[in-house]
Amino acid sequence: MRLEFLIFSLFNGLVFGLLLFMLSSGLTLIFSMMGVLNFAHASFYMLGAYFAYQVSVAIGFWPALILAPLIAGALGAVIERYGLRAVHRHGHVAELLFTFGLAFVIEEVVQLVWGRLPVPYVVPPSLDVTLFTLFTTDFPAYRVFMMLISVAMFVVLFAILTRTRIGLIIQAALSHPDMVAALGHNVPRVFMLVFGVGTALAALAGVIGGNAFVTEPGMARLLGSIVFVVVVLGGLGSLTGAFIASLLIGLIQTFAVALDYSLADLFRALGLTVTSETVLWDLWSTTVAQIAPILPYLMLVLMLAVRPRGLMGTRDV
Questions:
Q1: CB 283 within 8 A of CB 207
Q2: What is the pTM of this model?
Q3: CA 246 – CA 137 distance, rounded (Å)
Q4: 211 neighbors 57 (Cβ within 8 angstroms)
Q5: Looking at the predicted structure, is the pLDDT value of residue 288 above 90?
Q6: CA angle (63 as vertex; 60, 64 as ends), nearest 5
Q7: Using one digit for the tens of pLDDT, what is the confidence trace for 194-222?
Q8: CA distance 157 to 139
């Protein structure tokens, strides 16, 4: 049973970590290049799931896998062009307030259109099968599909940013926007493109994550804050850092939620007597599973204290 727990916790941790990467990769591009702390980024993850549900009802899941991110990306580009760009001249606080308000607007619109209850967005029948059975546990094929999409996206993004002309322009616009503009490139259009691609990547995560978990109006809030943890932990502007940080958080949280051990158990194993009458008993009896939701934030605090630039970042937060 312990081997079964280890293997399937590892698989599930990889699935969750790669989903986090899909969601955080777009924010990494936006945050590192434009300096915009986009509080509405997870809302596009939600929109991707809802758009995919609506398209899949009409013409199936596979067209939705392509169309939903494109629709969300186009919407993101329009928001950047006619909303975010207008408040940019007022500074980062105005941008923060704009995206913060945008998150609430998107959630309210979703509730008006699709209601407050979860929608029946389900895994397509062709992937709703068991890939393999180990010991007594089945592992679904759809989770492997999620991992393959995530890894493929990382490879494609990395290749575009490091091996293509548009990738070089994007990286140059990050550090030397005036020089890029002097060479004849439209920097605002590059920013709009990056924002649109970033939101499309978040929507793609929603397409493949919405049916694996639950598609409902609160799904953006569940992952919204942890995405910023991934971006800072991995290092601003580092796609590789975001990939590593996502996997770390996914694995640590997945293993942690299943560990019903506490410091009291450790003390007893060392031969120390710990009871409910012991000082700070509430602290000693707190299990790893109970603190699992705050572990990413503890990791963030530790990283900021030890290495403010993150795992693979080139500049301090």
A1: no
A2: 0.88
A3: 25
A4: no
A5: no
A6: 80
A7: 889 889 999 999 999 999 888 999 888 88
A8: 28
State how many domains the chain has.
1
Dist. CA 308–CA 241, nearest whole Å: 13
Tokens of 92: 């980062």
Residue 290 lies in a domain: no
Q: Which two tokens stand for residue 103?
A: 């998150």
299, part of any domain:
no
pLDDT in tens, 15-33: 899 989 988 888 887 877 6
Span 62-94, pLDDT tens digits: 999 999 999 999 999 999 999 888 887 787 788
In a domain, 120, yes or no: yes
Q: Is the pLDDT confidence value at 191 over 70?
A: yes
What contacts 268, CB < 8 A, 6 or more positions away?
Answer: 274
Residue 139 within a domain:
yes
Confidence tier at 107 by pLDDT (50, 70, 90) = very high
What residue numbers bound the domain in which 210 lies? 2-227
- At position 117, the amino acid (one-letter code) is L
- Is there a contact between 97 and 227 (Cβ–Cβ < 8 Å)? no
* Rounded distance between C-alpha atoms, residue 18 and residue 121, angstroms: 21
Residue ranges with strand state E in the chain: 130-134, 137-140
Token digits for 81?
A: 């062009």
Question: ∠36-26-87 over CA atoms, to 5°?
Answer: 25
Report phi then psi at 316, rounded to 5: -70, 155
Give the span between the Cα atoms of 9 and 42, in whole angstroms. Answer: 25
What are the tokens at 145? Answer: 């599909």
